Amino acid sequence: MSHTSPGVGIVVGRFHHDIASTMVEAASEAIREAGAELVETVWVAGSYETPLAAQALLRAARIDVVVVLGFIERGETLHGEVMGHVVHRALVELSLRHEKPVGIGIIGPGATAEQAHARKVDYAKAAVRAALDLHLTLARPAGSDRSA
After folding, report:
1. How many angstroms separate the CA atoms of 95 and 11, rounded?
2. Distances (CA, A) of 116 to 23, 62, 122, 123
3. Is 79 a catalytic residue?
4. Which residues face 12 on adjacent strands?
5. Which of 60, 73, 116, 124 is least crowded, fewest Cβ atoms below 10 Å from its Cβ?
6. For the chain, which domains are there?
7. Which is nearest to 5 in space by CA: 27, 26, 34, 46?
8. What angle do CA 140, 145, 148 make, to 5 degrees?
9. Active site residue: 3, 17, 79, 85, which one?
């Protein structure tokens, strides 16, 4: 790596803007606290659109980690559940393909608005911490102890 602090990109769905904006603030704070650099924040319509935006960020040389934030609300049909499975799988596959961590901070599917409001800060910060932790683990030289 040619730079010292990890570059982080955030992708966030704006469908539930009040929750999402708080999540972005919390994630940005966690990034600063970790000594990383927030390089770019990309707002998309909703969680379904996050994988393509995440892919674009993962292709960027300056991005070491992507954090995806949002909320898939429990509905009266299985739409949210299906979307959640598709989006999560796509994000994991992108992480593997690009060999860069993707922190998934999407609340739900199946959560209520009340649950999302209660969890939004913790989910956002946990996604940042998990992704940066994996980045540091993977950056250790081969043959070193990666369990510490």
Report:
1. 14
2. 10, 31, 10, 9
3. yes
4. 43, 69
5. 60
6. 7-15+25-109+119-139 (3.40.50.960)
7. 34
8. 90
9. 79
